[in-house]
Specification:
The protein is of the alpha/beta class. The protein has 4 helices and 7 strands; from the N terminus they run βββαβαβββαα. It has a 5-stranded mixed beta sheet with strand order 3-2-1-4-5.
Amino acid sequence: MGGLIGTVMGVDIKPGFSPRSRRTPRYSAVVIRDSEVVAKYDDVPLYRLIRLIIEHHVDVLAVDNPYELTGSVRGLVKLSKLIPSWCKIVEVTWTPEGYKSTEVLAKEHGLPKPTDPESTAFLNAILAE
């Protein structure tokens, strides 16, 4: 697929969580480099995702919906100041043709349909790569 970007972390929020709720959201994350999985994480809070971005020197944080990370534009601006300047947040479902669901993108790229947060995190990483 790719491998030109460097290190990509795909992220997806766990079911039952929302950045707008009182409970701390939890995420699944998959780190890939050169299309190979180098690490998987489950049930991770946002502050730990930020630490993992630094530890793995992640170039691209791939999400299907950036509002899963924070519940507002203000929150996204704050998050962009917390992550290293070399890391870019990419919304994989926003394509030149407009919005496409992860299921549609998986089918278009010949990848399995995501069935849980971990498989969605992996798909997000592969699509961003």
